[in-house]
Sequence to fold (130 residues):
Amino acid sequence: MTLLISSLFYPAFYIVGDNPNSWSESWLLFFFGWTFPLGGAFLPFLIWCANPIYIFSIILTLKGKIKGLYFSLTASILGISFSLMETVMTSESGGTSRIKSLELGYKLWVSSLIVLTIGIGINELILKRK
Fold:
């Protein structure tokens, strides 16, 4: 959770645009990503769904359910898949911009997803051995 919260304070990515410092704020993406389908950005919405899946996997894990591992793995795959995107929708009219670079906010966010998956996996292995 510390990595996830830390990621909110850094830019997620830079885009090519008129302004050489065009970037996307991580906290805006995290809290308002559910609105992406309203502008037609369905694929970024699916990737944003890694956030509620992440939280749901924590809840399942705390309840002792193995499904928490599968949900965290799904969230990790969704998060990593953003790195494969070359463009992202940047305007309500459907305009897109090329992603120039992935920044610390994105890297911390993906790290939080992966660390959770590894942690739950290790926890499940330890519980199976007992």
Q: What stands out?
A: The two ends are 27 Å apart (CA to CA). Strands lie at 11-15, 23-25, 87-89, 96-102. The chain has six helices and four strands. The mean pLDDT is 86.
